[in-house]
Amino acid sequence: MADEKIVEGLLKFSEVTGSFYIGNEDDDSAEQLEFGDEFEVYLNNEWIKTGLRIDSDENGLVFRLKNTDYQGMLDDIPARKKL
Question: What is the DSSP letter of 71?
Fold first, then answer.
């Protein structure tokens, strides 16, 4: 699929909008992520299909990445999403 567009960058959280996005430091582009969106993160030398999830624990609400052990502060994880 040569026409398939992929946005790639780092997973970020905006305190202004209260949302996650995939940002690229080389330009001002950003792809906002919604709960329910599927995207991939690069962990342990492989791309893993994931999505955002909110759970609660003894400290309150916590952000998690599906199919990984990552939770809490999720910034600066390499990520990509098909558009």
Answer: B
